[in-house]
User: Fold this.
Amino acid sequence: MSAAQVEFLGFPESTVIASEGPLSQYLRLSREAGGLIPQSMLPDAIGVSKSRVSHFVCEKRFDVHVIGGKNYVTADSFERFLLEERKSGRPWHKPTVSDLAKSAVNEIKRSVAEARRNKNK
Assistant:
């Protein structure tokens, strides 16, 4: 893998060592990092989608090493990730004009229906 390809993927060039074979590279990095976990196993391990794991990798929330064309996450960074406080669900967003209009119409309908019920009593 060339330096340009490595830079394109967003990984520092030092994570790819061409002189070592994949097995010896895996063993060395595994010893140094306290273990390596294939990136493909992370979605099941943390309960998110593959694309979300890719987002976490792009956000540098995992330390990733490319070995033989496959991504491996260090066990230390995986452990650190598990200890983080994470909010579940979608992030809150400011309501759009359309959302506010729908809410206003629903509120008017509710108040009209309530007024009719009170009138019939």
User: Anything to note?
Assistant: The chain has one domain: 3-88. Helices lie at 3-9, 22-33, 42-46, 50-58, 75-83, 97-119. The two ends are 80 Å apart (CA to CA).
